[in-house]
Amino acid sequence: MLLEKAPAKINLTLDVLHKRDDGYHEVEMIMTTVDLYDQIQLTELEQDEIVIKSEKRFVPDDRRNLAFQAAEKLKEKFQIKKGVLITIRKQIPVAAGLAGGSSDAAAVLRGLNKLWGLHLSFEQLAEIGTEIGSDVAFCIYGGTALATGRGERIEKLPAPPTCWVILAKPSIGVSTKAVYGKLNTANIVHPHTSDMVSAIKEGNYEKMCKNLGNALEQVTLEMHTEVRQIKNQMLSAGADNVLMSGSGPTVFGLTQKQSRADRIYNSLRGFCEEVYVVRMLGKQISVD
Ligand SMILES: C[C@](O)(CO)[C@H](O)COP(=O)(O)OP(=O)(O)OC[C@H]1O[C@@H](n2ccc(N)nc2=O)[C@H](O)[C@@H]1O
Ligand SMILES: Nc1ncnc2c1ncn2[C@@H]1O[C@H](COP(=O)(O)OP(=O)(O)OP(=O)(O)O)[C@@H](O)[C@H]1O
């Protein structure tokens, strides 16, 4: 039996450059993992099958689950004739823009690499992960990175300046495909990715806050008024800046003061069911 943590990610920036011929969008985004985790337990089975268990509604227990696809890919590619029970203790909100499913898939790839003694590098696991979803490669490494291409090309960055992150997810789920589908690439307000990279490298918290930006935010804001309400609520409770993560609908606010993090958290409870105060992890996931 083996346990593997699957952390959520947030987007500090998300820029869309253009739509590609293969239907995906060329992106440039800075992502960082936070200490909100799903717990993945991998148990070897006698029978040659993949079984998914999760107590949470909305999490599929068949091939639609990205964790299932991760195990299936490894079995196919390396002709593994063993079975595995994948138990997912879900803590990351579902369909939230926090890469929950992608991080579960990445954790299964890392975990089975150990359990089945495959000795694959993180680079090889990231390549396999990309066949499952655009965010999986980043989730293999965790930490902070600039992701380009359709999200699969990863360049490591140092840890962002220390701060509190308040996450709030309104009670709606958002389909990433639908948000990209509604995006008008001619009307994008592009975030300043290179300024965010330098903010992180300089450890400049104010500059990081100033340069938060997400090209998909406007699309989701127009679909769901709750996202705007949460942004306004966080700002009026004292967040230094706020942004929607990924394709949403989760919004995060930043502050360096714990008392203010508490105030923002309290101001959202009752208003919004899923609220968390977390830290950015900064560090990448270690190979062992
Ligand atoms: C919004 C983000 O989560 C930000 O990190 C990612 O860009 C999306 O990553 P993901 O959920 O792993 O996305 P995938 O499962 O690869 O793709 C879902 C759908 O989103 C759209 N999609 C995704 C990534 C991308 N660079 N361009 C796209 O247009 C495509 O319509 C695709 O069919
Ligand atoms: N392991 C999983 N955990 C949660 N949802 C999963 C999982 N595998 C597949 N899904 C399906 O994927 C859909 C999107 O869920 P997920 O939580 O991964 O979205 P997300 O956080 O918005 O992802 P991203 O930020 O990568 O776009 C869900 O509605 C669910 O049906």
Structure report:
With 288 residues, the chain is α+β, with helices and mostly antiparallel strands. The protein folds into two domains: 2-156, Ribosomal Protein S5, domain 2, CATH 3.30.230; 164-279, 2-Layer Sandwich (Alpha-Beta Plaits). The chain contains ten helices and eleven strands. It has helices at residues 66-77, 100-115, 122-130, 136-141, 176-182, 193-202, 205-210, 217-223, 225-236, 258-268; strands spanning 2-19, 25-45, 50-54, 83-89, 144-149, 153-157, 164-169, 213-214, 241-244, 251-255, 274-279. Strands 1, 2, 3, 4, 5, 6 and 8 form a seven-stranded mixed β-sheet that branches. Strand 9 and strand 10 (251-255) form a beta hairpin. Bound molecules: 4-diphosphocytidyl-2-C-methyl-D-erythritol and adenosine-5'-triphosphate. The site of 4-diphosphocytidyl-2-C-methyl-D-erythritol has 19 residues, from strand 1, strand 2 and helix 5. Adenosine-5'-triphosphate (ATP) is lined by residues 58-60, 64-67, 88, 94-102, 104, 135, 173, 176, 246-247.
What share of the residues lie within helices? 25-40%
Rg, Å, rounded: 18 Å
Shape: globular
Mean pLDDT: 96
Distance, first to last CA: 15 Å
Ions, cofactors, ligands: which are bound?
A: 4-diphosphocytidyl-2-C-methyl-D-erythritol, adenosine-5'-triphosphate
* Backbone structural class: alpha+beta
Tally of helical runs? 10
CATH top level label of the largest domain: Alpha Beta
Number of beta-strand segments: 11
Using the coordinates shown, work out and report the CATH topology of the largest domain. Answer: Ribosomal Protein S5, domain 2
How would you characterize the largest beta sheet?
7 strands, mixed
Please, how many domains? 2
**In what range is the share of β-strand residues?**
25-35%
Low-confidence sequence ranges: none
Q: Indicate the CATH architecture of the largest domain.
A: 2-Layer Sandwich
User: How are helices and strands ordered from N to C?
Assistant: EEEHEHHHEEEHHHEHHEEHE
